[in-house]
Write a structure and sequence with these properties.
The structure is a single chain. The chain is mainly beta. Helices cover 12% and strands 41% of the residues. The longest helix has 17 residues, at 118-134. The two termini are 22 Å apart.
Length: 146
């Protein structure tokens, strides 16, 4: 299973992306919004980079049991980050060392677009993770800026 994070907006507070989950045959299994901490364009670690979004590149994900789910995806080797989780929150639009998922609120201006229905979106993602885990499929995330 591959996750593609295509960033479309970033500032000193938040990074906004469209996240697509793609199956082994290339079919799109899920499309949603994703939010990370403040934007920086980099591919190698630098001092303090853990306070920013993940580095661009292709990184392996592992399944980790957390308070969010026993099947939480964790990005394990992105430069400058340790175990960045893909998760959700009822109220936050951004959390340190996390990629929050949800649906777009439909606001036209990307700067003011928020995510909603985070829990429901995370539950859909979790079902896909269970399926991939059950078949022994590796999970990768590809991150790039548009």
């Amino acid at each position: 299973m591959n996750i593609v994070l295509e960033r479309y907006f970033g500032d000193s507070y938040i990074t906004k992306s469209v996240m697509r989950v793609v199956g082994e045959a290339g079919e799109e299994l899920l499309r949603c919004e994703a939010r990370e901490p403040r934007f920086a364009q980099y591919v190698e670690a630098f001092p303090g980079c853990s306070r920013f979004c993940l580095a661009c590149g292709r990184w392996q994900c592992k399944v980790t049991a957390t308070e969010l789910s026993p099947m939480t995806l964790t990005v394990v080797k992105s430069p400058g980050h340790r175990c960045c989780r893909i998760g959700w929150d009822y109220t936050a639009q951004v959390k340190a060392n996390m990629v929050l998922v949800g649906e777009s609120d439909g606001y036209e201006d990307p700067e003011f677009r928020d995510i909603v229905q985070s829990k429901e979106t995370f539950d859909k993602l979790t079902q896909l993770v269970y399926r991939a885990f059950g078949t022994g499929e590796e999970i990768w995330i590809l991150i790039h800026n548009s």
